[in-house]
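--- STAGE predict ---
source: upstream dedup step, 1 unique chain passed
mode: sequence only
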Amino acid sequence: MNRVADERDEYFMRQAMGCAEKAGQIGEVPVGAVLVSSTGQLLAEAGNAQIGCCDPTAHAEILTLRAAALAMGNYRLPDTTLFVTLEPCTMCCGALIHARVQRVVFAAREPKAGAVISTARVFDGASLNHRVSWQEGMLAEQSAQLLKAFFAARRS
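--- STAGE serialize ---
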């Protein structure tokens, strides 16, 4: 990747971190996501909202995909990149495949439920008719610290 692309990726990951921080401030697990077109247009963003929405599927990734699909008038979101602060779970990976998202950039691994590389390799399924490329590690430490602080506060 070139320097401009790296700077653009970091810019959007920082926006996802902002969504995660907002989610944490209202008592949701601090995960945030933003979806960006190949031209660099921000299509949608969200933080986790399972508690507020009373919806177990209201992960940041799902809410972002829903908002982008509505805004675009299409359930397919080709030529897009999702920036998310935590490795997506199996449900979110499935939604990303069905939406035809081109690329996922995630910050921290999720050792218990992450399905990109930690517990499964959902994007690598041989029978899939769409491939999602992925990259990990951008702002991983900041994301991990945000999550650790959130759960430490909940335990105390």
